[in-house]
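Encode chain A's predicted structure.
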Amino acid sequence: MKQQELEFEVPSWNQIYRMLLRIAEKIRKDNFKPDIIVGVSRGGWPPARVLSDLLENPNLANVKVEFYVGVAETKGKPTLTQPVSVNVVGKRVLVVDEVADTGKSLQLIKEHLQKEGAVEVRIAAVYFKPWSIIKPDYYAKETSRWIVFPWEVKETIRKIVKKCVEQGMPVDKEMGKLVKAGLSRRLVNHFLKGICEEEGAC
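Encoded structure for chain A:
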């Protein structure tokens, strides 16, 4: 997908919280009571922490897979760079991530947890992309857009600037699309100024 064809979705903290409330309700109605909640580093940490609170389950763990290299760019294959941080033998596990995009990283994590001895692994994601090879057991919204989460705004702007410079595209046009999608103009300008000074671009 070319950068100029990207459409952005910019959920607010409150919108994400409401989506996680719906996910928690689905999990309760399903009568699924995980022994451990595993947040996928890094994007899965914020939603995993919220679900830990909503499900009143303090047993949080971590796993890390590296996949994305840029905006709408991925490596060919995800790599498990940090195994699950606790013993999951005989445990029911809820894996939490921000989005099921290709689904490859979530599939890798599920297989890893099963090999580590988890008796049941279910997946929750705030968003689900229609082309994902894994459909989460619980998700709040399906979208084809590139989602910019509140915890990755600066990182996303940096990637967009880099891509624009590499492809000779106007930075302002892409920043305008972010603002139109709901990101604060003031916040965009704040990060853009610092990034452009650091990169000597824009």
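The longest helix spans residues 13-29.
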